[in-house]
Amino acid sequence: MARIAGVNIPTQKRVEIALTYIHGIGRTKAKELCSKLSIPFERRVNELTDDEVLRIRETIDADFIVEGDLRRETAMNIKRLMDLGCYRGLRHRKGLPVHGQRTHTNARTRKGPARPIAGKKK
């Protein structure tokens, strides 16, 4: 089992797909990485040599912000907005949608499950 950036990536999947299990690497970056290191897209993780795994690991460490560092950076950006007290920070603090979506209906993902209002029925 290959361990890259502190994540055990699945061995039976293609390299391009398996790399997306690392937080911060999506399909585009995974394809970019494979083409940069000249690894065929159809190659499976269990078919990789130790040298190729090492090259992937070194390239990710050098070129990408992934996993804990990325999560920390994102959390710090949100905390900065909240400390500033700007509109986006206030929306984060209240747990409401940040990017201008309507909240009269919908927005259940951010607001949580609907709570009934007492005395509403008549």
Structure description:
The chain is mainly alpha-helical. It folds into two domains: 2-64, Orthogonal Bundle (Helicase, Ruva Protein, domain 3); 68-111, Ribosomal protein S13/S18, C-terminal domain (30s ribosomal protein s13, domain 2). Helices cover 48% and strands 5% of the residues. It is built from six helices and two strands; from the N terminus they run ββαααααα. Strands 1-2 form a two-stranded antiparallel ribbon. Helix 4 crosses helix 5 (87-94). It is elongated, with a radius of gyration of 21 Å.
Write the layout of secondary structure elements.
Elements: E1 2-4, E2 7-9, H1 15-18, H2 27-36, H3 50-63, H4 67-84, H5 87-94, H6 108-111
Antiparallel strand pairs: 1-2
